[in-house]
TrEMBL record:
Alphabetical list of SUPFAM superfamilies matching this protein: RmlC-like cupins
Protein name: cysteine dioxygenase
E.C. numbers: 1.13.11.20
Keyword Plastid appears in the UniProt entry: no
Length: 340
């Protein structure tokens, strides 16, 4: 058969070369040479609109089917397979999984040093806003969260020597993708579970609460003239201390927006994180954990505009180790796979 294997080869050529006149040209294309020669459509010059793309797809598909039928090719015996294979519902640009669209945007918006610009970051945020639990294989979990009732909940946690619930409920992490510019993953948190106070050094983080409700508490360091030993208490300012209900998206930056934060699940919930650049101990981006301290460093001089009553003193735990009892297990990601 002299025709290409699918009508999309024509559509791709029309979109790449582009021309608003293309749809009209193709209306009369029944007697033209459809062997795939790029010289067949020399007038295609400008990009068609979305509606024209749909019209082109419909016209080209009809021509392709008619030509194959005239040559005796048995392709119309399985119309459902053809429609599935070539997206004949004319919504071809919208059929790509949303997580793939998000990943593609991250690849061009992030670098090994972080977001390329504020505009590209906002583009990624807009796509993240569209992501739903269903797009990530979490529809069942989201349904459980929607019907969850605190009065009928079961006890969480594991039984230890000291009795039930000695240990915190286990959080599951679903890894999606990681490269030198960004990483994507989901924290699935059972009720009353806690992600302890931690930071994202040198990183920009977009977080979307996919389903459920949690309490978020976040801080930024207060700039002081003479920084103290990082293991000694340091002053920080509270940025957020409130409940979050899905769906909600937030952005934090290396030096603002609540880079040091903690989450406590109120209901079953899931946090989808996009980090740029990702954690890397080799590049000085290792996660540190903190705790509130009642000790204040008297030698630290606070900026005059800072109200001392708003200051919280935080101290870093040694050796980047999380608090005892914090457990994160690897979970199975059931959504669309992101290829490298």
């Amino acid at each position: 058969c002299p025709l290409p294997p699918s009508p999309l080869s024509y559509l791709q050529r029309a979109v790449a070369a582009g021309n608003a006149r293309g749809a009209a040209d193709l209306d009369d294309a029944g007697d033209q040479d459809l062997t795939g020669s790029s010289a067949s459509y020399p007038s295609l010059q400008i990009s068609p609109t979305k509606s024209e793309v749909g019209r082109l797809c419909s016209i080209i598909t009809t021509l392709w089917i008619n030509c194959h039928q005239s040559l005796g090719c048995k392709i119309w015996t399985e119309p459902s397979e053809v429609r599935q294979s070539y997206h004949l519902n004319c919504t071809l640009p919208c059929k790509m999984p949303k997580i793939k669209n998000l990943s593609d945007a991250c690849k061009v918006s992030f670098s090994p040093d972080g977001p390329i610009s504020e505009e590209t970051l906002e583009r990624v945020r807009a796509l993240l806003d569209e992501i739903r639990p269903l797009d990530l294989g979490l529809d069942n979990e989201a349904q459980i969260a929607r019907t969850w009732n605190s009065s009928t909940r079961q006890q969480n946690g594991r039984r230890g020597r000291g009795g039930p619930n000695q240990y915190a409920p286990t959080i599951k992490y679903l890894h999606i993708h990681e490269c030198e510019s960004f990483s994507m993953g989901i924290f699935c948190m059972p009720p009353s579970s806690v992600i302890p106070l931690h930071n994202h050094p040198g990183m920009t983080v977009l977080s979307k609460l996919l389903y459920g409700k949690l309490h978020a508490e976040s801080y930024d360091w207060i700039d002081v003239a003479d920084p103290t030993d990082p293991l000694k208490p340091r002053p920080a300012r509270c940025v957020r201390d409130r409940e979050m209900t899905a769906p909600e998206t937030t952005i934090l930056y290396p030096d603002r927006g609540g880079n040091i934060h903690t989450f406590r699940a109120i209901t079953p919930c899931a946090l989808f994180d996009v980090l740029s650049p990702p954690y890397s101990a080799e590049n000085g981006r290792d996660c540190s954990y903190f705790q509130k301290s009642s000790v204040k460093e008297p030698s630290v001089v606070l900026p005059s505009e800072i109200d001392s009553s708003e200051v919280v003193w935080l101290e870093e735990l040694e050796d980047h180790q999380p608090p005892e009892g914090f457990v994160v297990a690897r979970g199975l990601y059931k959504g669309p796979v992101i290829r490298r």
